[in-house]
Amino acid sequence: MSMEILAPAGSTDALIAGVRCGANAVYLGMKNINARRNAANFGTEELASAVKYCHERNVKVYVTLNILVSDEELETAVHTAEEAINAGADGFIVQDLGLAKILHEQFPKVRLHASTQCSVNSPEGFKALEEAGFVRAVIPREMSLEEIKEIRKATDMELELFVHGALCMSVSGQCYMSAMLGGRSGNRGLCAQPCRLPFSADESKSCDLSLKDLSLLSHLKEIEEAGVCSLKIEGRMKRPEYVASAVTSCKKALLGEYLPNDETVLKSVFSRSGFTDGYFTGKRQDMFGYRQKEDVIAAKDVLKELSHLYDNETPLVPIKLDFICRENEPIKLSATALGKTVTATGSVPEKAINKPMTEESLGIRLKKFGNTQYYPTEVNITLDDGLIVKASEINGLRREVTELLNEQSNEEKVHSTYHLEKDKRKADAPYYTARFADPEAIPDRHPFKRIFIPVWCKDEDFVDNRAGVELPRALFSCEDKLTKRLEHLKKIGVKKALCSNLGAYRLAEKYGFEAYGDFGLNIFNSETARLFNSPIISFEATLEQINSIDAKDKGIIAYGTLPLMLTRNCPIKNHIGCQNCTGRLTDRKGFEFKVKCSPYPCVEIFNPLPLYMADRQREINCDFLHFYFTDENKKQVEEIISNFENGTKLDKKYTRGLYYRGVE
Questions:
Q1: Is the pTM of this model over 0.85?
Q2: pLDDT under 70 in the chain at which residues?
């Protein structure tokens, strides 16, 4: 397929701007289930109108259902999809794997696109998405060109890539900062972007978590050659002028007409200290920036001019015309466009008294499609000599075929029969499991049924502690390395694997490990929980939601310093260099956030306070409690175990996380 320009449509005005400037597809959200819930978005009737408008112009519409969905919301989400399908939507962008499973079962013909929020970043992960019924996947913004090529070799799915717009510091789907700090979750569509505020490696109040905006418009040829079919523009919260400018620039870039002045305009309409292509090229040294006064001033100068890009209808759709005018027969005008042919019939032509019609004069008249989306590419005229037809009647036939082409086909409506089946059950007294970042902290005697340590630990640590392996939360460029390590660990007797992403889970099963679902899978409902063995439920869910999830052998993190971000670009290295590493970031309020890197190339940023539920265990209806040990020593671990065994209240600062306050 040819390259698709995919434009954001947070509002009707933005949708019109994107379409008129040349987008081949738009993506938009409905009012409730989508990752930009603060955008204007679309109600059911608005969506139907939007789809009609787009389809009349040969533009596809993809609906975003790209958030985590609770049990209470599953039926609403399925009903939302049903309404969108019946309105003519061309596909759905989905994050929640349980919801994807339901949609695939309820609506077998529906096109599922895997959101970048699925946190899949390895060949095995993309294979797993394909097996789950997805036909397209959005590539993580953190991937390099070479990594994209690896994915292309691994799957037959269509690949979609962000080529312009905002960059999150965290790997998509693995950011819990906004949720933990302010109760507004990116995984639930309401990220407050705290990362744009000062988080400094040296207490200078610098913005070390704020990245420049992405722009890959100068790399479109390489992207096309890598097998990407859809060029996605970020910005459902942005104004129509931004959408118009970005789509226009993308179109120019595809035609090889993208000039330095176009980039200047694009920077002016919105940027954060300019643009970056650091992840794509692998050159990540100059990726950080934030919105400055100069950026805001520059935008004011270009917005009015950009608004004229979509003032009028753009002729986007080629149309072929066949006009027949024979003596003693009604005139006919047939039009072919949008994959269909329609015909309008008029009156019988009259004999001309003075000046008969000619093919030339008829052609001029027939080609006048005015302020519509059509432009004639071929006009065939069959005309007997000496005839005449009123100009008004020819104009009427032209309008009639246009209206017939614009009519939407009445496809059979779909209807969902989905209902979440759940058994209310009370779990037995929960058993304990744990992960240790440092094997030295594992006590000689402990109550843990399962222990996991990172994949890079020493062989003897696995053997001596009879430990399972915790796989990395991201697998950028390291699947081969991980595969070799897993083969070796299997040989020395390691049997269990704790997996935080779909690629790791599939890889563990492939090599004969007993795979367990970790928190990074963002398991938020019963349907998703049932897809994984002994799943650890997302710590963004409330205790009430977790308790009601119906899945075999479920667990939650009951203790631990929770990771708030998983990043591929170290904020400390960027600002002060590894040689001056403090191992922490300080926010504007003076709170310290520990930063840790690993042999697998990602960095984790941790919450300042530990999650602690020892004195609330009776309120938890789960099969097991998971302990997430990071930098505790053996003595501290033993004290925490004792506290849980005795239900002790903690006499120092801690957090209950989101288990009681929840997220928006």
A1: yes
A2: 1, 35
